Amino acid sequence: xxxxxQQHYKGSYKAIEEHWSPQGSLGRHLRDNxxxxxxxxxxxxxxxxxxxxxxxxxxxxxxxxxxxHVDVHxxxxxxxxxxxxxxxxxxxxVELPEEIACPMLRKTLRRVGAKRMIVGHTPTESKAIETRxxxxxxxxxxxxxxxxxxxxxxxxINNNVYTEHFYEHLQEPT
Length: 174
Hints:
By secondary structure, this protein is α/β, with parallel strands linked by helices. It has helices at about 1-10, 15-20, 25-35, 50-55, 60-75, 90-95, 100-110, and strands at about 35-40, 45, 115-120, 130, 135-140, 155-160, 160-165.
């Protein structure tokens, strides 16, 4: 968001590139700790969604391809893993009609060995956590950013019981 670029980087896109580079503090942290996909207890976690074509790659392959692409293009392109059908940007599973999205979801889940997928990235219209495709797709983006709905929430999963928690609006950092 332009306001964040101004606040945190004094308007310098060069500073952003340095921060995200393999030598930058954020770049190092994300490369070491961020997983493009993660499966825990047969639940696939992915930022935006994983489509069947990308599900053929291993988790490590997706991670490597993503960061190689970022390093080469400095995020200046929407091609490859950063493209609009990639796991960081796709909205297909959330926005396509269920008769199209649900077969895609089932195929992906089968390929990765999961029973459910949890995604963010696309704020839900209700500003609450929603599900699709027989509760196999859980959409948890409630618009937490102060630039959207300012509605922070989290999904707690405990013994296969899903509980939604909401918090007071985020305040501007001081």
